[in-house]
Design a protein that fits this description.
CATH superfamily of one domain: Acetylglutamate kinase-like
Largest sheet: 8 strands, mixed
CATH architecture of one domain: 3-Layer(aba) Sandwich
Distance between the termini: 34 Å
Number of strands: 20
Strand content: 25-35%
Structural class: alpha/beta
Length: 416
């Protein structure tokens, strides 16, 4: 039988009434002749509540034990969903990440999947069961329980779908699909019927919270179709698929923002070989992901170097940058947490010149100063003052995406 993997987020399993509702949906899928694998997140605020309990005891809980604690939320949810499905006369069996054969590296708190051994899941499906999996977790190569980081249940679902050769991975959430912008900021944001893996990867990495970045990477690598849809109704959502399957290639498909970034600048750095390595190697060793990097043109043998990091890593990154600055004889390292990154994303940028210039003009008309710029074939990102985030998103959406905006289809179907 065809296999469908369904993933339900914390809101979808927030209480027993919602668990009962998704159990009905799961049973209907099984009755339609599909093998069904369900991946669940923890209920509602369970993970946050567990984190708060740990922080009440210590501000630095031991990572191994914190992972052991946090995975309890998904185990509770998977068991309740399995109980609900069984109560409807449909056989179901639940499995933790380790029981499901999800093998990760040894990094607690943000482990990466290195292998999936799905034999037990295949056997359970062959036995006629609906399989319920705890998302967000796995077993490390050193046989410790690990967690995959925020949004890790998405990665669990897509990775398992790829391992099983599933026809589709359905991501059920509290929104109707992938929108051209955050509807809370842009009321006329519209749902996209389709979006390419490449566009979705950019949007996820640039702040769109619908899918975890690593889940999109798995889908891209294995060609697994993703259907992002609402857990509250049965309507169509957004299909995430290969570029050649996307019918409408808009110049700009979406506008995203990310307030979770901070900026660090090293002033008056000696401009010589090895300086960048001296700065960024300690950051890498500390597991800090650096996003945008800008180095000014050298003047009198010196330059300024600016980069961005996640807000959660800001203090540690600033300490390491200050240490590097002192060792290299730089004037100082200074930071700014009051920034945001705003981006436009679209396949059509590959074929249209002047998109970046138009973006800059739109922001200039709103009196918004650009601090940093980064580009790729299908995105332009700028760093601005955080207080202008919503204004920038609305202005760019109106210019590129809203009804009446000049945002033509990049290529007609007949031209492909």
């Amino acid at each position: 039988m065809p296999i469908v993997v369904q993933k339900y987020g914390g809101t979808s399993v927030g209480d027993t009434d919602r668990i009962s509702a998704i159990a009905d949906r799961i049973v209907r899928a099984r009755e339609q002749g599909q093998d069904v694998v369900v991946v669940v997140s923890a209920m509602g605020r369970t993970t946050d509540d567990l984190l708060e309990k740990a922080s009440d005891i210590t501000i630095t809980p031991e990572p191994r034990e914190l992972d052991m604690l946090l995975t309890a939320g998904e185990r509770i949810a998977m068991s309740l969903v399995a109980i609900a499905v069984n109560a409807r006369g449909c056989r179901a069996a639940s499995y933790t990440g380790s029981q499901a054969g999800i093998i990760t590296d040894t990094q607690h708190g943000k482990a990466r999947i290195v292998e999936i051994r799905p034999q037990r899941i295949k056997e359970s499906l062959d036995a006629g069961n609906v399989v319920i999996l705890a998302g967000f977790q796995g077993l490390s190569t050193e046989y410790d329980i690990t967690t995959l980081g925020r949004g890790g249940s998405d990665t669990t679902a897509v990775a398992m779908a790829a391992a099983l050769g599933a026809d589709v991975c359905e991501i059920y959430t509290d929104v109707d699909g992938v929108f051209t912008a955050d509807p809370r900021i842009v009321p006329d944001a519209r749902k996209l019927a389709q979006i390419s893996y490449e566009e979705m990867l950019e949007m996820a990495s640039l702040g769109a919270k619908v899918l975890q970045v690593r889940s999109v990477k798995f889908a891209t690598l294995y060609g697994t179709p993703i259907h992002v849809r609402s857990s509250f109704h049965s309507g169509q959502g957004t299909w995430v698929t290969r570029e050649e399957d996307v019918m409408e290639r808009l110049v700009v498909s979406g506008v995203t923002y990310n307030r979770n970034e901070a900026k660090i600048t090293l002033r008056t750095v000696n401009d010589r070989p090895g300086v960048a390595a001296r700065l960024f190697t300690p950051l890498s060793d500390a597991g800090i992901v650096v996003d945008m990097i800008v180095q000014n043109i050298s003047s009198d043998g010196c330059t300024d170097m600016t980069f961005t990091v996640p807000v959660g890593d800001y203090q540690k990154a600033l300490e390491l940058a200050s240490s590097a600055a002192a060792e290299m004889g730089a004037a100082k390292a200074e930071g700014d947490q009051g920034i945001a990154k705003v981006s436009i994303v679209g396949l059509g940028m590959k074929d249209h010149a002047g998109v970046a210039a138009r973006m800059f003009n739109v922001l200039a008309k709103e009196g918004i100063n650009i601090q940093l710029i980064a580009t790729s074939e299908i995105k332009v990102s700028v760093v601005i003052e955080e207080k202008y985030t919503e204004l920038a998103v609305r202005a760019l959406h109106a210019a590129f995406v809203s009804e009446g905006a000049t945002n033509p289809v990049a290529e007609s179907i007949g031209e492909r």
